[in-house]
């Protein structure tokens, strides 16, 4: 699969989460996203960045701010095709597509435990036994979750680089073996 074939395939399968995607299909589309984000960043920097200078007696500060509208638009355009191709890529390695969302699910889970655990602890007398118990239990759960959270993107990256599972699997035929 060539670079242009991968882009064409990913945009034609915009919301297709079934089937399998080969490594070149995923990584060429990922390269396409990186290139367009760099171009969008340059456009944002050139046309949408505001520079302000503030000076006190001894210090001169220069601040550049941008709302990055072009990068936001590019991100919205490629979000679902990228999620769909990552989902299909996980299928190609024999895993559920949900594994592509593992880091995001861990972030949501960690924040939910933190918010509900600390929130529940705040309903008890401050400094009381139940307050301390819920706060410590929450931290006991959140700290290992955060450690796993730092490792999970590397694990997902490793899964995305794995070769295709030979032959057909539960998600469909091998993309390398299908006559095109």
From TrEMBL:
Cited Pfam families: DUF805 (PF05656)
User: Coiled coil located at which positions?
Assistant: none
Stored InterPro entries = DUF805 (IPR008523)
Task: Name the keywords, alphabetized.
Answer: Membrane, Transmembrane, Transmembrane helix
Q: What's in the GO CC field?
A: plasma membrane
TM annotation in the entry: 26-48, 68-87, 99-121, 133-160
Q: What protein name is recorded for this chain? A: Inner membrane protein YhaH
Organism this protein belongs to = Ruegeria atlantica
């Amino acid at each position: 699969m060539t670079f242009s074939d991968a882009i064409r395939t990913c945009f034609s399968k915009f919301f297709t989460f079934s089937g399998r995607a080969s490594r070149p299909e995923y990584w060429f589309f990922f390269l396409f996203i990186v290139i367009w984000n760099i171009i969008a960043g340059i456009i944002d920097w050139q046309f949408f960045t505001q520079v302000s200078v503030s000076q006190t007696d001894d210090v001169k500060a220069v601040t550049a701010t941008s709302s990055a509208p072009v990068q936001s638009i590019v991100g919205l355009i490629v979000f679902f095709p990228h999620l769909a191709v990552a989902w299909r890529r996980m299928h190609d390695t024999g895993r559920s597509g949900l594994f592509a969302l593992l880091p995001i699910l861990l972030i949501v889970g960690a924040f939910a435990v933190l918010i509900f655990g600390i929130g529940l602890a705040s309903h008890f007398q401050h400094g009381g036994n139940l307050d301390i118990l819920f706060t410590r239990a929450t931290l006991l759960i959140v700290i290992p979750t955060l450690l796993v959270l730092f490792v999970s993107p590397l694990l997902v990256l490793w899964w995305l680089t794995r070769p295709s599972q030979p032959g057909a699997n539960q998600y469909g035929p091998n993309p390398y073996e299908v006559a095109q």
